[in-house]
């Protein structure tokens, strides 16, 4: 089974960007963690990051018929993008939303998530380990769907 792991704007700056909020791990570290989790779970992953809302929307659309589920950290687009939410609604796949930080403990504008309106589940505040947890849960959801 293929799981898409999609990352939104500024996550390429992980490790340098506000390390007190997001930690010192880089996006390469996140990708490695996901690759390890995938191997353990016997699933394939397609790991990507973009700074562009349009590209992220296109990548979500491409998941239709190709992936079994989407793990997504939409970054700032979480709080702004109806287009991303609509794209996620269009693909008919389980979606797990991940945030490194606990968005509910931060500024008011981060409390609202368009993606949460459609996501199967949400993991936030656990740092990069949230990605591994999301992949474990997604592999489980996919198995459930197959049986
Ligand atoms: C984030 C939280 C968002 O509010 C923020 O815009 C990000 C990262 C997180 O992983 O904690 O870019 O999605």
UniProtKB/TrEMBL annotation:
<dbReference type="GO" id="GO:0009073">
    <property type="term" value="P:aromatic amino acid family biosynthetic process"/>
</dbReference>
<dbReference type="GO" id="GO:0003855">
    <property type="term" value="F:3-dehydroquinate dehydratase activity"/>
</dbReference>
<feature type="binding site">
    <location>
        <position position="110"/>
    </location>
    <ligand>
        <name>substrate</name>
    </ligand>
</feature>
<keyword id="KW-0472">Membrane</keyword>
<dbReference type="InterPro" id="IPR001874">
    <property type="entry name" value="DHquinase_II"/>
</dbReference>
<feature type="binding site">
    <location>
        <begin position="100"/>
        <end position="101"/>
    </location>
    <ligand>
        <name>substrate</name>
    </ligand>
</feature>
<dbReference type="GO" id="GO:0019631">
    <property type="term" value="P:quinate catabolic process"/>
</dbReference>
<dbReference type="GO" id="GO:0008652">
    <property type="term" value="P:amino acid biosynthetic process"/>
</dbReference>
<feature type="active site" description="Proton donor">
    <location>
        <position position="99"/>
    </location>
</feature>
<keyword id="KW-1133">Transmembrane helix</keyword>
<keyword id="KW-0028">Amino-acid biosynthesis</keyword>
<comment type="similarity">
    <text>Belongs to the type-II 3-dehydroquinase family.</text>
</comment>
<feature type="binding site">
    <location>
        <position position="79"/>
    </location>
    <ligand>
        <name>substrate</name>
    </ligand>
</feature>
<feature type="site" description="Transition state stabilizer">
    <location>
        <position position="17"/>
    </location>
</feature>
<keyword id="KW-0057">Aromatic amino acid biosynthesis</keyword>
<protein>
    <recommendedName>
        <fullName>3-dehydroquinate dehydratase</fullName>
        <ecNumber>4.2.1.10</ecNumber>
    </recommendedName>
</protein>
<dbReference type="InterPro" id="IPR036441">
    <property type="entry name" value="DHquinase_II_sf"/>
</dbReference>
<dbReference type="GO" id="GO:0009423">
    <property type="term" value="P:chorismate biosynthetic process"/>
</dbReference>
<comment type="subunit">
    <text>Homododecamer.</text>
</comment>
<comment type="pathway">
    <text>Metabolic intermediate biosynthesis; chorismate biosynthesis; chorismate from D-erythrose 4-phosphate and phosphoenolpyruvate: step 3/7.</text>
</comment>
<dbReference type="Pfam" id="PF01220">
    <property type="entry name" value="DHquinase_II"/>
</dbReference>
<dbReference type="InterPro" id="IPR018509">
    <property type="entry name" value="DHquinase_II_CS"/>
</dbReference>
<feature type="binding site">
    <location>
        <position position="86"/>
    </location>
    <ligand>
        <name>substrate</name>
    </ligand>
</feature>
<keyword id="KW-0456">Lyase</keyword>
<comment type="function">
    <text>Catalyzes a trans-dehydration via an enolate intermediate.</text>
</comment>
<feature type="active site" description="Proton acceptor">
    <location>
        <position position="22"/>
    </location>
</feature>
<feature type="binding site">
    <location>
        <position position="73"/>
    </location>
    <ligand>
        <name>substrate</name>
    </ligand>
</feature>
<feature type="transmembrane region" description="Helical">
    <location>
        <begin position="114"/>
        <end position="139"/>
    </location>
</feature>
<keyword id="KW-0812">Transmembrane</keyword>
